[in-house]
């Protein structure tokens, strides 16, 4: 049995694809989602027009449903990882593979600390998923599920491939996570803009904010000896340059970056919209922390983190690009 622990957008999508392919999946999550799934089943769609239905998925709301799982996919937001590990620790057999399918850099470390007897495997989801209510989850971009190669996963690879969510294996995921984080530095910008991702990224002023956040991240990575992998098909060092191009040129040269469902938004926007704390401390906040650890600073990422915390407390979520560009240039 595969357990999806923290089944929201990503968990329902990946677990739903597996369940639709006949894999034995148990979803563990909140009553809010369980109620939807009980009433409507689970419907999985994507930007290519695919649609799958799971009439009666097994969606449970207590940790005990994870007991004895052969594989656990952790899909809680980063702030809930330590709690998830504490809940899973007494329930899993030693050696159970536990894959973190989360953004940021530090979740695998947190899981290892809380689950010393499990085989924790770093992973990452490169595509966007929107939870549309009534048990519907929609993949709004292309992208793969990336994981670190581990023998404990071998028995499951065929299931993921058959389900249409093949695991892309890497010898070392740190560079892949660091590359993905460069894209996730856009999460607060998107959330603060109040716009869908495609509309936001089509505007140069927002992209210039992102480019600045990425330059700080690249400096912090260099100081920390982290080599980010190719991201969105590009050398990470070129990303800020491409983002800074005028709109007409960007639209032509970086069409792949705009191949996003017109309604898709960042998971940080989802959290603000739902009135929940965001993951920003594990995204832009992680870059600020990494910079500080290595004796430099990342003021743009610090400022974006602070603005998202203000938004969590009811602050503005309708920043225009030029306003945001001015705000990151200004000290607090
Ligand atoms: N959504 C997206 O497009 C993408 C997201 N990601 C990453 O994937 C990860 C998951 O994101 P996403 O699916 O959007 O998050 P969601 O908030 O949609 O889903 C996580 C779910 O887990 C629940 N949860 C939290 N703690 C527990 C617990 N201890 N036991 C059971 N359930 C729990 C949450 O409930 P509650 O909210 O009540 O705490 C929530 O329903 C994040 O790291 C995110 O950054 C990566 C790529 C794209
Ligand atoms: C796919 C992407 C980059 C979309 O913003 C994401 O990871 C998120 O929303 O958290």
TrEMBL record:
Biological process, per Gene Ontology: pantothenate biosynthetic process
Residues annotated as domain Ketopantoate reductase N-terminal: 2-150
Gene3D superfamilies per the UniProt record, alphabetical: N-(1-d-carboxylethyl)-l-norvaline Dehydrogenase, domain 2, NAD(P)-binding Rossmann-like Domain
Catalytic activity: (R)-pantoate + NADP(+) = 2-dehydropantoate + NADPH + H(+)
Coiled-coil portions: none
Pathway assigned to this chain's UniProt record: Cofactor biosynthesis; (R)-pantothenate biosynthesis; (R)-pantoate from 3-methyl-2-oxobutanoate: step 2/2
Pfam families to which the protein is assigned, alphabetical: ApbA (PF02558), ApbA_C (PF08546)
Name of protein: 2-dehydropantoate 2-reductase
Gene Ontology cellular-component annotations: cytoplasm
Family: Belongs to the ketopantoate reductase family.
UniProt xrefs under InterPro entries: 6-PGluconate_DH-like_C_sf, 6PGD_dom2, ApbA, Ketopantoate_reductase, KPA_reductase, KPR_N, NAD(P)-bd_dom_sf
SUPFAM superfamilies: 6-phosphogluconate dehydrogenase C-terminal domain-like, NAD(P)-binding Rossmann-fold domains
Gene Ontology molecular function, alphabetical: 2-dehydropantoate 2-reductase activity; NADP binding
